[in-house]
Amino acid sequence: MKRAVVDTNVAVVANGRNGNYDPQCRLACIDALEEMKSRGQTVIDRDRLILEEYMHNLREVGQPGVGDAFLKFILTNQNNPRRVKIVNLSASSFPDDPDLVAFDLSDRKFASAARLANAPVLNAVDSDWWHHHRALARNGIEVCFLCGTGHFRPFDQS
Known about the structure:
Blueprint: E1 2-6, H1 8-15, H2 23-39, E2 40-45, H3 49-57, H4 66-77, E3 84-87, H5 108-117, E4 121-123, H6 127-131, H7 133-138, E5 143-145
Parallel strand pairs: 1-2, 1-4, 2-3, 4-5
Helix pairs in contact: 1-2, 1-4, 2-4
């Protein structure tokens, strides 16, 4: 079973409502979300910071987009440990690394959850992950880039 933290931008791109995304990027995001729903285990945090961000950017009813359906799936399965892994974030969950001082504060919950769960972060279009990928990797946080040129690294769906 594949375990991953899904950055909100993956679901937003999969929905296709909030921007003009490359069709291949959107398809990669849709495929990754469908894989997580069918065979994956999505990591969220006990304090619901990740879930709240999903709920702020997606529709809880699961319609009409694939990203919305992903949120509904997480809400339905949040107490099913086969589908959702819950981790406890703390102040020490995010690495104390000078190369990560400028890393986006709103993305730290995703990085921390990934580090605690030993799972990759799935990212679509947020460049901050790319700018810091070496420092994140050095601190045990793998990032799978679903979209982009020159640094594309697909989500392993095996």
